[in-house]
Design goal:
Blueprint lengths: L12 E5 L3 E6 L10 H16 L5 E6 L18 H10 L14 E5 L3 E2 L1 H7 L3 E5 L3 E3 L13 H9 L1 H10 L3 E2 H6 L5 E3 L4 H15 L2 H15 L4 H16 L2 H12 L15 H4 L2
Helix pairs in contact: 4-5, 8-9
């Protein structure tokens, strides 16, 4: 099963899926995939649409051409009129949930460089695969603005306060290998291997990871990052474990392991998600 990019009238991204793993491609290669309001709206809409489909187990976002995303398009689209921006946002309106509130793992396959919003938007996703030799950076302070998309809260939690302060404050460029070494990226591989690496991980999740379990872990990890009280986080985790342990997937996972076969998961990431346990 595939979804054609023209189905939703997307102009700056491409979408595709194999029925389990979805791929979204930033598609402005002549502009180094520089971010515009339209690209942002289309990307949010595509992620929301794939997240709503229970059969989609992982979402991979990559870029066309040699650059993943060169940041905001400062010349042709980002600073368009408020009316134009409103029209695009209305056309591609979603339920407003942020990436950490989605039940599907979202992965960045950064086959080339990413700076500015090109990096902050992927920082709030779940897994990041970088090109080892490409350049990355939170360059906002060097442009007279400040890091956004929650990066001032998140980056220090990913790499530590001291290193996070340095990356955000200096706005310096760093290579993908350094990003992986400090834990900002999950892996750094040669550029022509990035997408295959990410898709391989996504397909492994799609086959071997229970979709409801993945949704629960993803949502709870993000929730726990903002949790001040360790005991509260532990009680919620215990309640979530109690829920999944009583579900058919717990037995299926054990039987698939013993019988050395692919599991046939029963629970869905959305319809079987225990929202009530997150409200405690």
């Amino acid at each position: 099963m595939t979804s054609n990019s023209t189905d939703e009238g997307y102009e700056e991204i491409l979408t595709d899926d194999d029925g389990t793993v979805a791929t979204i491609t930033l598609n402005r290669p002549d502009h180094l995939n520089a971010w515009t309001w339209r690209m942002g709206a289309e990307l949010d809409h595509a992620i929301a649409a794939f997240d709503a489909r229970d059969e989609i187990r992982a979402i991979v976002v990559t870029g066309a051409g040699r650059t993943f995303c060169a940041g905001a398009d400062l010349g042709g689209g980002t600073w368009s009129s408020t009316g134009d921006r409103r029209a695009v946002r209305e056309r591609y309106a979603t339920d407003g949930r942020q990436p950490h509130e989605r039940n599907t793992p979202i992965m960045a396959a950064m086959q080339g460089s990413a700076v500015g919003v090109g990096l902050t938007m992927v920082t709030e996703w779940d897994i990041r695969i970088a090109c080892d030799a490409a350049k990355y950076g939170y360059v906002f302070n060097r442009r007279g603005v400040v890091p956004e998309v929650g990066s001032q809260w998140l980056v220090p939690r990913l790499v530590g306060a001291s290193r996070g302060m340095e990356l955000l404050l200096t706005g310096r460029l760093f290579r993908g290998r350094e990003g992986a070494d400090i834990g900002l990226f999950s892996a750094a591989v040669p550029g022509d291997e990035v997408l295959d690496h990410a898709l391989g991980m996504a397909r492994d999740i799609g086959t071997n990871v229970a979709p409801a379990s993945a949704a629960i872990v993803k949502r709870n990890v993000w929730r726990s990052l903002a949790e001040d009280d360790r005991a509260t986080a532990r009680r919620r985790e215990d309640a979530l474990f109690g829920y999944v342990a009583s579900q058919p997937d717990a037995e299926e996972g054990a039987m698939a392991f013993v019988e050395k076969r692919d599991p046939d998961w029963k629970l869905a990431k959305n319809t079987d998600f225990p929202s009530d346990l997150f409200d405690r």
